[in-house]
């Protein structure tokens, strides 16, 4: 810091001299009519790289770019879309005058410019998830040979032909008939046109699969990487959490991490929450190409102040209230329903939901 003092004194002398020159010019020439030239500015000492490091003050651009909260000053890389800053594990986003907003390993929403009402707003303190996600309590990477059904220790395949109060057009089958591994680390659920008579004696013209996790959790983080085939009328793929017991739905809540089909040919996935209180059905659209891989994630808490944080590809999309009884357990469901609320199904339906992984953290 001792080296910086002469620099500051030189800068102060230059500022004073420059001010005097400006005042002289503003006053105009003296009575004799001879113009007065401003005195030359004193030369500034040469500044070497090691000296600049000791000069106090923020680095250039520090007021414009987010920096890592570990004190290194390294700039955080932005995603190609420019809408989120992705931070390495164990770091946090720090914006000038703003508290940290990113969780470890997650994206931080860009802080809004108060002067720009259209700028995306970052999460407020009340919208940030509580703490960091814990260790994995459930994980399926769907490894195994092609044609094998999902692991019975992690998933149960619900069957039958009376779903959606009888309004849906599919029979759910078991034994891997409509849900199989592809041999490349993915689970593929297929809804197709075919005649089928369920064990309940009901006949349908479509078959599909509905997988339910064998475990349930009282809050945490669910993350699923998935993609869908192109739009076909009547296909209703979904990734969701359903509170137990299901017979009391929506009292124990439902979180639709992803469901598609309500937007018709636009084929734009949506997210929703359902409870038996105010705000049930709230949600929105993701605005993405559903046929490409995306990571859908939620963090959820229960109780009177329960909330759901919806993320897409690491970016926080929205926070919604989720007021269900404290400690209500919820199970994961992967399925493709057919018809009902998404319209009359195509005569030659062949729709798929491909899942890369399902991960749950406490």
Automatic annotation (TrEMBL):
User: Pfam families per the record?
Assistant: Glyco_hydro_16
Q: Residue span of the signal peptide, if any?
A: 1-26
What's the superkingdom here?
Bacteria
Q: Which key words tag this protein in UniProt?
A: Glycosidase, Hydrolase, Signal
Region of interest called Disordered, as start-end residue ranges on this chain: 28-50, 105-134
Q: Which InterPro entries does the UniProt record give?
A: Beta-glucanase-like (IPR000757), ConA-like_dom_sf (IPR013320), Glycosyl_Hydrlase_16 (IPR050546)
**Would the keyword Protein transport turn up in this protein's UniProt record?**
no
* E.C. code: 3.2.1.-
GH16 domain location is 121-362
Kindly give the Gene3D superfamilies that the UniProt entry links to this protein.
Answer: 2.60.120.200
Show the CDD domains listed in the entry: GH16_laminarinase_like
PROSITE patterns assigned to the protein according to its UniProt record, in alphabetical order: GH16_2
Single GO term (MF): hydrolase activity, acting on glycosyl bonds
Composition-biased stretches (Low complexity):
107-128
- What is stated as this protein's family in its record? Belongs to the glycosyl hydrolase 16 family.
PANTHER family reported for this sequence: GLYCOSIDE HYDROLASE FAMILY 16 PROTEIN, GLYCOSYL HYDROLASE-RELATED
What name goes with this protein?
Glycoside hydrolase family 16 protein
């Amino acid at each position: 810091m001792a080296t910086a003092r002469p620099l500051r004194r030189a800068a102060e002398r230059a500022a004073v001299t420059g001010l005097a020159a400006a005042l002289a010019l503003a006053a105009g020439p003296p009575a004799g009519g001879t113009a007065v030239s401003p005195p030359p500015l004193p030369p500034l000492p040469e500044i070497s790289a090691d000296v600049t490091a000791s000069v106090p003050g923020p680095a250039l651009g520090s007021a414009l770019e987010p920096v890592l909260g570990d004190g290194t000053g390294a700039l955080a890389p932005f995603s190609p879309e420019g809408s989120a800053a992705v931070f390495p594990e164990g770091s946090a986003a720090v914006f000038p005058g703003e508290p940290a907003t990113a969780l470890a390993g997650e994206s931080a929403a860009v802080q809004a410019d108060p002067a720009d009402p259209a700028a995306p707003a970052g999460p407020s303190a009340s919208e940030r998830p509580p703490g960091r996600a814990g260790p994995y309590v459930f994980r399926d990477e769907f490894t195994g040979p092609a044609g094998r059904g999902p692991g019975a220790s992690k998933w149960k395949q619900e069957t039958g032909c009376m779903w959606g109060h009888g309004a849906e057009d599919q029979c759910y089958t078991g034994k891997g008939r409509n849900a199989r591994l592809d041999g490349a680390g993915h689970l593929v659920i297929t809804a197709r046109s075919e005649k089928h008579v369920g064990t309940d004696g009901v006949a349908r013209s479509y078959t599909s699969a509905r997988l339910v996790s064998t475990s349930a959790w009282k809050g945490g983080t669910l993350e699923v990487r998935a993609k869908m085939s192109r739009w076909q009328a009547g296909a209703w793929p979904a990734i969701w959490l359903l509170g137990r017991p299901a017979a009391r739905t929506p009292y124990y809540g439902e979180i639709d991490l992803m469901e598609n089909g309500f937007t018709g040919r636009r084929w734009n996935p949506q997210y929703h929450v359902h409870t038996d209180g105010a705000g049930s059905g709230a949600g929105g659209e993701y605005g993405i190409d559903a046929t490409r891989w995306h990571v859908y994630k939620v963090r959820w808490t229960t109780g009177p102040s329960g909330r759901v944080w919806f993320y897409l590809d690491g970016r926080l999309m929205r926070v919604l209230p989720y007021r269900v009884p404290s400690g209500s357990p919820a199970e994961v469901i992967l399925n493709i329903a057919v018809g009902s609320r998404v319209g009359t199904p195509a005569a030659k339906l062949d729709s798929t939901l491909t899942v890369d992984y399902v991960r749950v953290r406490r």
